[in-house]
Each structure stands twice: as structure tokens, then as C-alpha cells.
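Input chain follows. Return C-alpha cells only.
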Amino acid sequence: MRRLSSVLALTAVATLALAGCSDPDTSGDQSASGSDQSGTSDATAAPGVTPFDTSTLSAVPEVEALVPQAVKDRGVLRNGASTDYAPGEFRASDGQTPVGYDIDLVKALAAVMGLEEGTTTHAEFPTIIPALGTKFDVGASSFTITKERLEQVNMVSYVEVGSSYAVAEGNPKDFDPTDPCGAIIGVQNGTFQQDYVQTLSEQCTSDGKDAITVMPLDLQTDVSTKVIGGQYDATFADSTVIGYTIELAKGQLEQVGDVIESAPQGIAVAKDDTELADAVQAALQYLMDNGQLKEILGAYGAEDAALSTAELNPSVSE
């Protein structure tokens, strides 16, 4: 469920904890230092995140044995990702360095495979799959597993991502996610969630209830700030985005209700490279079994998205 304006949101993401209850339309310039509570102030780090230390991982012989010789000889697992989709893959405050849980995951996969490193190069989203097997070994870029994609590539599942609501701490507006009619809900422009809430609003009016006031903004951080400040009752976004936003808000936001409209995402490998697909599956399963996948995701508030089984080319309903 990729968003059209995610790359813009990252310019403001680090200011959320500083914004408090201010209105982004009236507050002054609040530039972020890049620091977080752990003392990190690296311009090449993700805002508010201490990522999982992949140097603690070592080669797993049974996984290493599955890695194709060409990848072993290169010593590098090359990932292609569209770095505009926090918290999976985006850019650090230097505007260049790829960061996010998919970037960290590729480094972890490389370590378990016995490779020297896992690297991520930015590529526009539609160009990643055609480049697998030549420019890139894998595509870890929040790819939802679909029947169409499974016809093009091998995919190994690792997370399940849907949509969820967040409200200000304590839910002061008494927002009910099971009956959002009459509420003021902030969404990011151009998203699946904007369309979904608009459809819900139409259903409300058909049922004789008050319409939802849908408030689309370009930046998810601005939406969240208005929820914290009481202008909006709730925000609705990808479940991983909500988790990361809550992490950055340091207790000023909380999730309400269940994750809905969820679907598995997978790492893509070239269709004819079954060796590498098997190696990726084995490496992912190792990280799942030993808890490292949850740790990698947890740094970004996304640990609840972790799957427990890495399925190669799982069956999907669409």
C-alpha cells in the first residue's frame, strides 16, 4: 500500500516529538538535530531509531551452503529499494543514505549467508523487479505479494502489513474504530487510506449516520500533530507507519482497534534464481526463529508486523 507522497513526509518525521500540541500551520520552524534519547546524532541514521546491530550475526552453515556461487564470489547481497516509504526504506537526514527496516534486514540476511555485506541502492519502484538477476540480487522494498508479482518473480514472505488507527494518548475524543461515523479523521494525501475512509463515510451517510470528515494532508507528521493537538479525532495509515509514528511521538499517540485490510509482503528474487530464493527463505526463517527479525522491525515500532514462517511463493487471494 505504497503512498504517493511518502518521500515528503520524511523531511518532517523527526520533528514530531518536538511538535507537541502545536498546529503545523502556525508553529515556527522546528528543525531537528537528528538526536534521539540514546544520544544518536548521526546524519546517516534514521530519526529516532537505534537500529539492530547486524555485526552481532554470523554465518549459518546450512544457510551459507544454499547461496549461489556467483553471490558468494561477489561477497555482496545487492538490494534494490525505492527509498521513499518509511519505515521500511527511506533516506537519512543527509538526504542520501538508505535507512529503514528493509535496509537493516538485507544486512542481516547477508551476515547469515556468510557474505561480507548487504547493500541497498535506490531505484524507482517500477524498475526494481525488471532489474532482479542483473543489477540487483533481491528486492526488499515493501512489495505486497500478489498473484501478478508471483508470475514475475519468486517472493519470500516476512511481514504482514495492513492499516490501523491512532489517537492522542488516552483517546480523549473517545474515537471508536468500529464506528467512525461523525469523526474527524486525518489521512495522508494520495493513499489507500484516504480512499478507504471516504468509502466508509459514504456508507455512514447511506446508513443514516453522520459523515466522516476526511482531512487529507501531504505529510503524515502534520496529520499526527493535529491528532495530538486535538484538531482531529484520529489518523488512519499503514500499520507500520502508525507504529513508527507512535515510536517517534514518545507516548503522545496510541493505536486503537485492530489492524485491518492486511496483506503479506515479501522479498523478491528473480524467477529463474531458485537457488537464491531458497537461501533467502532459509536466512529469513533463521532470523524469525531466533528473534532477530522482530528486533530489526522493533527499532521502527513495527515488530507486530513480523511473520513466524518465511513462505516461498505463498498462495494469495488476489
